[in-house]
Each structure stands twice: as C-alpha cells, then as structure tokens.
Write a structure and sequence with these properties.
Blueprint (H helix, E strand, L loop, with lengths): L5 H44 L1
Protein name: YvrJ family protein
Pfam families: YvrJ
Length: about 50
C-alpha cells in the first residue's frame, strides 16, 4: 500500500468526486436550458393573452 505513487492517491481522492461533479453540472445545465426555454414560451403565451 505504501508503494502507491502520490499522483495515484490524488487521483483516487479527488478524481472520482471531480468526475461526478462535472457529470452532474452538465446534466443540470441541460435541464436549466430546457427550463429557460419553457419559461420563455410561457412568457410569450401570457403576453399574447393580454
């Protein structure tokens, strides 16, 4: 266990959480874009009803 290089330990400690964070941020970004589009459509519909 003591022969593991420092970079491997860093990768093990920080690599996985970093990848999970990047994955979640990209998923949330897509959902936010979708919600933004839906809100703009709703604004247009409400504006036409005035």
């Amino acid at each position: 266990m003591e022969n593991i290089p420092d970079w491997a330990v860093l990768l093990g400690n920080y690599g996985f959480p970093t990848l999970v964070a990047i994955y979640l941020l990209t998923r949330f970004e897509k959902r936010l874009d979708s919600l933004t589009t839906a809100i703009r459509i709703l604004e247009n519909v409400l504006e036409k009803k005035k």
